[in-house]
Design goal:
- The protein is mostly helical and 338 residues long.
- The chain has a domain of 235 residues.
- Helices cover 78% and strands 0% of the residues.
- The chain is built from 13 helices and no strands.
- The longest helix is centred in the C-terminal third of the chain and has 42 residues.
- It is globular.
- The N and C termini lie close together (11 Å).
- It is found in: Cell membrane.
- InterPro entries: L-PG_synthase/AglD.
- Keywords: Cell membrane, Membrane, Transmembrane, Transmembrane helix.
- It comes from Tropicimonas sediminicola.
Length: 338
């Protein structure tokens, strides 16, 4: 006979609605700030020329940009599934893809910590605790950093003109990825951090346990496949910027466009701002200017590429999020009744 479970408090639903309203308000507020910033630059450089550049884009070209972004998400979603299977999670591909895409709804939280919602869905659907699924999130972020750092290094080597400040950013991303994918090294770093801080032993103990759990991902076949999937995904979005600049009459070369896109994305992430909003746009416009692209082209190009990458991902996440929530709650209910 199953034990009776305590009924959830009546205030849970209002709290969830309040939380969702807060998250949607944050997303809307950041979108308004993004559009206001881009609009201010467009006004400073002349609305007529900016609108002229935007009018040159056809519906088919916008669809191509969105398709390339979708290719990025599918590649990285496949990598998420690879990591989930490597960790031993009893999930299927579409289930993992639902978690991955749905997490994009929380991209604009500071440091993207809101994407940890994926771990809650996994806990509900598989019964695995957050401690057991934490390595999945860590290795996914590390794989992204490694792929972007390697591609940025290639862009620096192969582009016609250098990208100011790109080498330190690439080395920082690659170094972080290296540490995060080597269990012993990461565990040692956690231990040293605890010795310096000397507080929160239970928290650091969990971090150390998570670090040791990364051993499953250290197989060469897993790491090489994950790196290839990540590289293909980010190359797709870099290629999107390259095509966009060609269509706007400002071809700076494939590797230069890829390098600028990756550097801007990493630089935006380093600011800690939600979704890198503000930092990524400023870096992209500045770097395009250094490549000789006039502001009346770089501003609309930056606006379009960010709308078809970051904001498109958020839109997809918002569309999938309610479905992912319903599926996870249903799975949790089924687990309880087994």
């Amino acid at each position: 006979m199953k034990p009776l479970t305590q009924a959830p408090p009546l205030v849970e639903a209002p709290r969830l609605r309040s939380r969702r309203l807060r998250d949607l308000s944050l997303i809307l507020g950041l979108l308004i700030l993004f559009l206001a910033g881009i609009g201010g630059l467009a006004a400073a450089t002349g609305w007529e020329e900016t609108l002229h550049q935007l009018s040159r884009l056809t519906a088919l070209q916008v669809a191509v940009l969105l398709g390339l972004s979708l290719a990025n998400y599918l590649c990285r979603g496949t990598r998420w599934h690879l990591f989930a299977r490597t960790l031993g999670l009893p999930t299927h591909f579409l289930q993992d893809l639902r978690h991955f895409i749905g997490g994009f709804a929380m991209t604009v939280t500071p440091g993207r910590v809101g994407e940890l919602i994926r771990m809650r869905w996994l806990r509900r659907e598989t019964g695995w605790s957050v401690d057991r699924t934490a390595p999945l999130v860590l290795v996914d972020r590390a794989s992204d950093l490694a792929a972007m750092a390697i591609l940025l290094g290639l862009a620096i080597a192969l582009s016609a003109a250098g990208i100011s400040g790109a080498i330190p950013v690439a080395l920082l991303a690659l170094g972080t990825a290296y540490v995060a994918t080597h269990p012993r090294l990461l565990a040692w770093c956690v231990t040293q951090a605890y010795r310096v801080i000397g507080r929160w032993p239970r928290l650091f103990g969990r971090f150390r346990q998570t670090a040791r759990s990364l051993r499953a991902f250290s197989q060469p076949g897993v790491l090489s496949t994950a790196l290839a999937l990540g590289a293909c995904g980010w190359l797709a979005e870099g290629f999107a910027l390259h095509l966009l600049l060609i269509w706007m009459g400002a071809d700076i070369g494939f590797w230069s466009a890829v390098g600028i896109f990756l550097f801007s994305t990493l630089a935006g992430g380093l600011t800690g701002a939600p979704g890198g909003v503000g930092g990524a746009e400023a870096a992209m416009i500045a770097l395009l200017k250094l490549q000789g692209v006039p502001l009346e082209v770089s501003v609309p190009a930056t606006a379009v590429i960010r709308l078809t990458t970051l904001w498109f991902a958020i839109l997809l996440g918002l569309a999938v999020f309610p479905f992912a929530e319903r599926c996870s709650k249903k799975a949790a209910h089924d687990l309880e009744n087994r």
